[in-house]
Design goal:
Elements lengths: L13 H10 L5 E5 L6 H15 L4 E6 L2 H20 L4 E3 L4 E4 L2 E7 L3 H8 L5 E4 L7 H8 L12 E6 L7 H8 L14 E5 L13 H5 L5 H7 L16 E3 L4 H6 L1 E7 L7 E9 L2 E10 L4 H11 L5 E3 L4 H9 L4 E3 L6 H10 L2 E5 L3 H9 L2 E3 L5 E5 L5 H9 L1 H5 L10
Parallel strand pairs: 1-7, 1-8, 2-5, 2-6, 6-7, 9-15, 10-13, 12-15, 13-14
Antiparallel strand pairs: 3-4, 4-5, 10-11, 11-12, 16-17
Helix pairs in contact: 2-3
Length: 415
């Protein structure tokens, strides 16, 4: 027997009750943003489980950018706790990562793989919940939202979003706080949109003793802003802020520009990233071809051969064994030169260009939104980048080596 929300109302915090009220207020796009462990993700999962149980035959999607993160945090943890919290009988389909509640389905997936996205787009939903949207590019959001189209009698379709707030350059700030379309800048009809800040202090009764005072309050200032106070930040720490999105690299740009490829190795936690680059004057075009984990060197070689790349690929020279294995597999790859300050020099060179990222390069876009300078405890950035959100960006740096080293050498022609 499923508990009604009224049966467990007293188990919600005051902020969680506000989010419940917002979900039935008539708004169809709802953002819960704020600090770490504030109860926002758990409650949204509870609301989705309730909707699935109440509206039989409905279908719901919970997605993060990375499939591995969606599996670890949602499928194996939060969603199961939500099902237990409501006392719902559920059937877990482990192989496909969806749970059946009667005739309803809740799917858990990632947005970082073309095949997974195609499966997502092959179904319609009554609820879409995009978790940790600070990592999800806006073009991906608009694509997924086209599938919020399943019709079930009495069930009003809803989209939920949550995040620890990124910078004010992020699309979520523009949409939910400023009330403007992230692409056009035109004013939105805010009757559709609702936002609620939820912070750890609002969820203290459910947190371990000392989590706020002993952990969050001792974080550096920029991390306190996000994970303790739940505030959107100024863009002073974000490295790349002036880039834009293009549908594709035109044939004219390809014909006139200098071309190159960059490769960054990864395996378990970090993905392997492959990008194509076209430099035309001071405009650098970036097109992402690969961004996947668990790829062996043989997998990488097989994938690259399908692209029939004629140009040399510049890869991380810290992986000489991987480079040698690719070369033995007839892949035209070489190690990029790396000096003691090559990361900073590469970033400085990229900052001197106008960056254009293709619409399909969703992982590169996510990195550009999040790649930032390290900050001291006072929140002031210094000239050393964080070692995160940099896999595609590292591939870009490697691929730009021939442009940086010998910009006058023509590299005209197709890849």
């Amino acid at each position: 027997m499923m508990y009604r929300l009224s049966d467990i109302w007293d188990r919600f915090t005051d902020k969680q009750k506000e989010l419940v009220r917002l979900s039935v207020s008539g708004r169809s796009r709802i953002l819960a943003y704020g600090g770490s462990r504030s109860g926002k993700t758990f409650l949204i999962c509870v609301l989705i489980v309730k909707r699935a149980a109440e509206y039989q035959g409905s279908r719901h999607l919970i997605a993060r950018l990375r499939y591995s993160h969606a599996r670890g945090s949602i499928w194996l943890d939060t969603l199961r706790e939500a099902v237990k919290f409501l006392g719902v009988t559920a059937e877990w389909r482990e192989s496909d990562h969806y749970v059946k509640i009667g005739d309803s389905e809740i799917w858990v997936d990632g947005l970082d793989d073309k095949e997974r996205v195609e499966k997502i787009l092959g179904r319609e939903y009554n609820t879409v919940f995009l978790n940790e949207i600070s990592q999800i590019p806006y073009p991906t959001v608009t694509t997924v939202m086209t599938r919020l189209a399943l019709k079930i009698d009495g069930c009003r379709n809803l989209a939920f979003f949550d995040c620890n707030p990124p910078s004010k350059f992020h699309w979520s700030y523009k949409m939910f706080i400023q009330g403007v379309d992230p692409d056009s800048g035109e004013a939105l009809d805010m009757k559709m949109y609702g936002a609620l800040k939820m912070n750890p202090v609002d969820n203290q009764e459910h947190l371990p003793e000392g989590y706020i005072t002993d952990i969050l309050e001792h974080l550096p200032e920029d991390q306190q802003r996000r994970f303790l106070r739940g505030e959107f930040g100024d863009a002073q720490g974000v490295i790349f802020t002036g880039w834009d999105i293009v549908d594709e690299i035109t044939e004219d740009i390809e014909r006139r520009g200098k071309q190159s490829w960059g490769l960054d190795f990864g395996f378990t936690v970090d993905p392997t990233a492959l990008v194509r680059l076209v430099l035309y004057g001071d405009d650098l075009y970036i097109d992402e071809y690969l961004y996947t984990d668990e790829m062996t060197n043989q997998d990488i070689a097989d994938f690259i051969r399908t692209l029939e790349i004629k140009r040399e690929i510049y890869a991380d020279s810290a992986e000489p064994k991987s480079i040698a294995e690719l070369q033995r597999s007839k892949v035209n790859v070489r190690g990029a030169k790396k000096g003691p300050d090559s990361i900073k020099q590469g970033i400085d060179w990229l900052l001197s260009k106008r960056l254009h990222v293709t619409r399909r390069s969703v992982n590169t876009q996510a990195e550009l939104h999040n790649y930032a300078w390290k900050q001291n405890r006072d929140g002031r950035p210094f000239s050393q980048p964080i070692d995160d959100f940099n896999h595609a960006i590292d591939a870009v740096r490697y691929g730009c080596e021939p442009f940086i080293r010998a910009p006058s050498i023509p590299m005209i022609g197709r890849a």
